[in-house]
Design goal:
This protein is an alpha+beta fold. The chain has five helices and eight strands. The chain has a six-stranded mixed beta sheet, covered by helices on one side. The termini are far apart.
Length: 166
């Protein structure tokens, strides 16, 4: 039987797939979007099983991603997270920045404080893609900026690459 039940999505038929499915879910007290993206109308059942397993472990992958983000931030050669944070510090209105990290904050402390506000807003899964399996989008606030720290992983949650996008 080609059907499989996925958390948040219900039963999917691996032989009759739509291109896109999405769900809004509570994650650590915030709403995030999880979406499934398919290039073809059918997929091997094992790939849906991999998506199911991934969804069931999003909390673990998010914790791993937070380590990747912290490592990039602390690494002298890391540029994605620092660039994102410095860009936000430059672009945000003073009152928005003060609301996030407090007023009268030393310039040197602003990136570290802003880093603590970075949170997950979306997980996109691509079970039949030749490239990345999952894309995680992080932001300091969807209502404050269109820019994201984006983490691409394989189906085991291992970092492929990290970038900033808008």
């Amino acid at each position: 039987m080609p059907n499989i039940k996925l958390p948040y999505f219900g039963i999917l038929d691996s032989l009759l797939l739509e291109e896109y499915y999405h769900a809004e879910v509570d994650f650590n007290g915030r709403n995030i979007q999880i979406d499934l993206n398919f290039e073809n109308g059918s997929i091997e059942k094992s790939r849906l099983e991999a998506a199911k397993q991934f969804i069931e472990n999003i909390r673990i992958y998010d914790l791993n991603n937070q380590k990747y983000i912290q490592t990039d931030f602390e690494n002298k050669e890391g540029d994605t997270v620092k660039f994102y944070l410095n860009n936000q510090i430059e672009e945000l209105a003073e009152d928005d920045l003060a609301e996030l990290i407090g007023s009268n904050t030393k310039s040197a402390d602003q990136p570290t404080l802003l880093l603590k506000k970075l949170h997950l807003v979306r997980v996109g899964l691509y079970p039949d893609s030749e490239g990345q399996f999952a894309i995680f989008d992080y932001t300091i606030g969807k209502d404050l900026t269109d820019y994201l720290v984006v983490i691409n992983t394989d189906e085991n949650g291992n970092l492929d690459y990290m970038t900033m996008e808008s």
